TrEMBL record, chain A:
GO terms for molecular function: oxidoreductase activity. FAD binds at S11, L42, I78, W376. Its EC number is 1.18.1.6. Residues 4-38 form the FAD-dependent urate hydroxylase HpyO/Asp monooxygenase CreE-like FAD/NAD(P)-binding domain. It comes from Guyanagaster necrorhizus. Gene3D superfamilies: FAD/NAD(P)-binding domain, NAD(P)-binding Rossmann-like Domain. Transmembrane segments: none annotated. This is NADPH:adrenodoxin oxidoreductase, mitochondrial. It catalyses: 2 reduced [adrenodoxin] + NADP(+) + H(+) = 2 oxidized [adrenodoxin] + NADPH. InterPro entries: FAD/NAD-bd_sf, Ferredox_Rdtase, Ferredox_Rdtase_adrenod, HpyO/CreE_NAD-binding. Its main location: mitochondrion. Its cofactor is FAD.
TrEMBL record, chain B:
This is Ferredoxin. Its cofactor is [2Fe-2S] cluster. GO terms for molecular function: 2 iron, 2 sulfur cluster binding; electron transfer activity; metal ion binding. PANTHER family: FERREDOXIN-2, MITOCHONDRIAL, FERREDOXIN/ADRENODOXIN. GO terms for biological process: P450-containing electron transport chain.
Amino acid sequence: MKLAIVGGGASAFYVASRLLSRLPQDAHRIHVFDRLWAPHGLVRYGVAPDHPEVKNCTHKFDHTATDPRFRFFGNVNIQHQSEQMNVIQHAVQLPLSSLYANYTHLLFASGCPLPTLHPALPPSSHCIPALNVVHWYTQHPSLPAVPPLERLKHVTLIGNGNVSLDVARMLLTPPDMLRPYDVPESVMSVLERSTIEHVSIVARRGPFDAAFTTKELREMMNIRDASMAPIPPELLVVPTGKEVSRAQSRSIQLMQKGSKNPYGSTKKTWSLEFFRSPVGLASEDPLGPAELSLAHTTIDPANPRRAIPTGETSRLSTDLVITSLGFHADDSSSPFHDSSLGHLRTEAGRVIVPDLPGGKDLVSGSVLKNMYASGWASMGAKGVLAATMMDAYAVADTILSDLDHGDASEGVSLMNPNPHPTNPPPEIDAAAGSVVGYEDWKKIDQEEISRGESLGKERTRMGWQEARELLGRTT
Amino acid sequence: MLRGLALDLLSVSSRRPSYLKACPKRDTFAATWSTRGFHRSIPTRHGGIDRPKPGTGIVIDFKDSKGTLIKTVEANEGDDILSIAHEYDIDLEGACEGSIACSTCHVILEQEVFDQLEEPGDDENDMLDMAFGLTETSRLGCQVKVTKDIHDGRWEVRLPAATRNMFVDGKRASH
């Protein structure tokens, strides 16, 4: 097997680690391609800086990368359409067809890199996706605009998942507590000038359907210099006949108890606004506050997963709305993207042909032989690292089982059964000066850590130019 | 409080290898850094603990979710279940390396053992909330230290159903 993996995040590394540990032969090769120059996907560019322990999984990834059968090619964007939008200007462009021609097997582990927007809240000077904020504080190579925290008093987050709470926590935590972590100095200086006083976290359903985990809620409750507005107690009563899980009941107890600091005893405050759904955002002055219109909602008796409007509305004056409503896959990353799902369609990790306009020779609903997907690219954007790991291991087991019974399985394969046994696509050699290998990354990684040491922090992140200079690639 | 602890550890990190700076550990763990931390941190399969002389340690039967024995091993007083599993190549993951930031080392204990252990803290319970196949006697393996005082030093540790395919024993012979 010569496997190409599109995307170098946690899912890719867990699949690779499993495959390499189960395949004792030298003949196998695994090549991972990432459009970013640094590996590890959301572990580097998603995990909140004050959750450093989550990043311990990279020790295992480092170990996997030491296997001589493994290679990483960073700063290489795999594209299947020649004129697609490319957010990373400096990435080497490699057509997907080149992976078909140079590999026997293909795994899409390309995640869900695009934020899902709210139809009533298009991005504007007053409204940005939470992903932009995450990319700002992790210094993602897409380099989004810096949020103007020095002229904001009130911020509204739409959605109450863990990404939303990560952003809220970053905005409310005293900057001196964030300094030892992996927060770029440029981000620190903006956080230090922040004038934010209140963060409202809006969700269309109630406390029993909140998307955050108890851990993230507890961290919010314990922020040193912030306090939460009490939640109306009637919202925290278990509805009659409702079955409450252990996680729900622990989370509700925490909401009843409230924040460690009593509300009003701190300059910064935050609130969980349940049963509210945005219907519009209006502003006369691009630098002044905006009016967010909120429809009041209730749970649809016919479908407890839905919220329906009650007819009441209210207005909230706010300086910035940040939407945090989940993510979906990039349909330009694979021709087999199923737009009705927002990601690839798979069965046990095998890619299934969706309904394709024009169809070609592929039968919709059939298995694409030797082609797989794992992680968010296959499941959609849900689940913490543990879920990604388990999914990855299951997909690796599918691949191993297909290797055992390969010739018997049905389906069309687009892959080359006899590529060069070890070489990456020739385009990679041609662009070698721009491609980052794993040993290059480790050099950058060590340098980031040692630069951070002198500032008393976990690391000091590099941008692409600095990384190139370190690697002696500037000509 | 956990946050404060994390910061304290970051500030005294000079004794530890630099790449470990990002790993705030619970206090008991920090105490072992000087002697064992290095072994622990290297991404190998082994747990960085010493195996007792056969016949002298606490006996642990690792079983799969159906109750089938995977392996019987021996460990010393005070070793945690995650480290023991790694020492003996039982594929219990520890993605966050014992810092209570994931649920990948979820194990199921016998009722009698569970009842005699100190209750899990809020941070461990927060992670167990996200574990697959949670039971009444579930714990994080990294937080449970084996002791002779419970169940006469003979323990049974079951892996949850969702990890049933994760054993490394019986590696495939060829591909």
